Amino acid sequence: MSQETLLSQLFPTAAQIPEAWRLEGPIEQREYLVDGQLLSWQGPLRAVRSPICLASAEGDQAVILGSTPQLDAQTALTALDAAVRAYDNGQGLWPTLRVAERIRHVETFLAKMREQRSAVVKLLMWEIGKNLKDSEKEFDRTCDYIVDTIEALKTLDRRSSRFELEQDTLGQIRRVPLGVTLCMGPYNYPLNETFTTLIPALIMGNTVVFKPAKFGVLLIRPLLEAFRDSFPAGVINVIYGSGRETVSALMASGKIDIFAFIGTNKAASDLKKLHPRPHRLRAALGLDAKNPGIVLPQVDLDNAVNEAVTGALSFNGQRCTALKILFVHEDVVDSFLSKFNARLASLKPGMPWDGAALTPLPEPGKVDYLSTLVSDAIAHGARVVNPGGGQARESFFYPAVLYPVSPAMRVYHEEQFGPVVPVVPYRDLQTVIDYVLDSDFGQQLSIFGTDPDEVGRLVDTFANQVGRINLNAQCQRGPDTYPFNGRKNSAEGTLSVHDALRVFSIRTLVATKFQESNKTLISEIIRTRSSSFLTTDYIF
Fold it and tell me: Which of 61, 29, 14 minimizes the C-alpha distance to 394?
C-alpha cells in the first residue's frame, strides 16, 4: 500500500472506533482539589482537543474531548495557602506523621488509583495519541514505581532507626520533609514522569500543589477522588489553568520550597527567577535534551539500526530520552540508512488502539514546525531519504529521515521532539566529540560499536559530559532504580527511586553526649513513644 493510501485511510469514522475505546461524550470538568475538597469552578474553561480526527463526508473533524478549568492566579493561591497550612512550618499532621503511617496513606491511594486503570489508559490514547500498549505500560509502570518507592522508604527508614556513636557523641539521623512542593510534569508522560516527583514528595512528608501537564489533563480527573480520600486535607492540591498566570503567582509568592518541573530549560529559568528567595528553593528539573547516537565503523549494524529506530521514533520521538541526532561513520552510513529505512517502513501508522507504532501528535502546530525543519534541511543540502518521509495529514506526520545533515541546518541544533531523524555522516571522530563537548545539553548519548579500544576511549571522553552513556542500546530512563539526571541545560538534580526520596527531604540529626543521664533520657523517650523522630521502630 502506498504512503498516500495509508494516510488517506489514517483517521477512522466514528463507527470504526472499537466499542471499548469510544468516548461517551465531551467531559466538562469543573472540579479541582483544594484543602481536601473537590471544588467547582464557575469561570472560563479550556477546550481539550484530541490529536485524533474523525473522517467524515465533510473531511477530517477534530475531536473535542471536553474542557478543564481555567483557574486564575487568586484561586491558585488558595491551593497554595492550603498546602502551607497543612505543612504548618513542619508542625502539621502530615509532616509529623510516622513514616509507617504516611506509607499507609500512599498504599491507600495506590489501591484507588488501580481501580481507574481503564479510564486513565483510554484518556492517554485520546489526549496525547499514545498507543494502547504504551499507555498501559505507562500506567502499570507508574504503579510499580509507587510500590518501589514505598519499599525504598522502608529500607531507608530501617537504616535510620539505629543510633550512631562517634567521638563520644550519640546521634540519630533521619530524613525529614522540606516544605511545600510545586509539581509539574510533561505532556509526553503525563502520569509516569509526574508521579516520579509527586509520590516521593508526598511520602517524605511534604505538601504539594500539583498542576497537570498542558496535554494529558483530563486523565488526572479519574484520580481526584483518590487523592482527596487518601490524604489529609491540604496535603495534595490539584489546580488547572494557564501556567503563565497560575504558576507564576505561586512562585512569586515565595512560599514554594521545592520546585519539581519537567519541561524546557527556558521555562524553568523564567519561573525560578520569580521566586524572591531562590537560594531557599530546592529544584528537581528534567529539561531539554539533544541525545546523539554515535555509530562507529566497527559495529553490529542490525542491532544499531533496531535500537536507533526505537530510540528515535518510540512515541513518535516525543521523549526527552529519544535519540535526536545520529552520527554514522561514512564506511557504514549507506548500509545503515538502507536497513534503517526498511525497519521504519515496517512501523504501522494508525490510531492508538489498533496496534499502530506511529500515531497523531498532540501539540498544536507541531506538524508545521517539523515541516519547517525538513524544508530548512533540504534548503541546505539534505534529502528526505525514506519513502513518504515528511508527508502529513492534520495532526499526523510521517517520519522523515534527513541525510546528509550538517551544522548549517536547524535540525542539527534544535531539539525536534518529534519524528524527524537527522543523520550526520562523519569521517573524523573528533567531529562527533566536538558536537558533544560544545552542546548546551548533556542528558545522554548512545555509542554503537564493537571495538573495545574505541568504545572505551569514547566512554572516558563523554563521562564528564552527559548523565548516562548507553553502549549498543538506545537512550532511556529505566530501570527506575538507576540514576536519571543530566548536565548543562538538561537537568538539575538526580532522580531514581531512592534518589528522589533524598531530593524531597533533608537529613536532620539529634545528638547528645554519650553520658548515662542522656542515655536514660533517650531510652525513656523511645519507650514512651514521646517522639515520632526519635524512635527505633522497624518497618517490615
Answer: 61
Overall pTM > 0.85: yes
CATH 3.40.309.10, the chain: domain bounds: 291-485
List, for residues 432-485, the tens digit of each pLDDT value.
999 999 999 999 999 999 999 999 999 999 999 999 999 999 999 999 999 999
Angle between helices 243-252 and 265-274 (to 10 degrees): 40
In which order are the strands placed within the sheet that holds 491-492? 37-40, 31-34, 236-238, 207-211, 180-184, 258-262, 282-286, 491-492
| Angle (CA) 56 60 66, round 5° | 100
Task: Pull the grid cell for residue 42.
Answer: 464557575
Q: Which residues contact 57 (CB under 8 A, 6 or more apart)?
A: none
Cell of 435: 558536537
Q: Which pLDDT tens digit goes with each residue over 140-191?
A: 999 999 999 999 999 999 999 999 999 999 999 999 999 999 999 999 999 9
Handedness of CA 250, 254, 255, 256 (dihedral sign): positive
Judge whether residue 2 has pLDDT over 80.
no
Taking only the tens place, the pLDDT of each residue in 94-124 is: 999 999 999 999 999 999 999 999 999 999 9
- Closest Cα to residue 354, out of 1, 6, 17? 17
Alpha carbon distance 338, 335 (integer Å): 5
User: Among candidates 69, 86, 111, which has minimal Cα distance to 225?
Assistant: 111
Contact 382, 403 (CB under 8 A): yes
Domain 291-485: top CATH class: alpha beta
| The three three-digit cell numbers of residue 245, written as one number | 498566570
Distances (CA, A) of 523 to 10, 97, 100, 526, 528: 71, 21, 21, 5, 9
CATH 3.40.605.10 domain residues, the chain: 28-43+70-162+178-286
| Dihedral sign of CA atoms 42, 43, 47, 48 in order | negative
List the one residue out of 161, 195, 200 whose CA is nearest residue 178: 200
SS (H, E, C) 294-333: EECCCCCHHHHHHHHHHHHHHHHHCCCCCEEEEEEECCCH
Distance CA(289)–CA(261), nearest Å, equals: 15
Is 324 within 8 Å of 418 (Cβ atoms)?
Answer: no
Distance CA 302, CA 304 (A): 5
CATH code reported for the domain at 28-43+70-162+178-286: 3.40.605.10
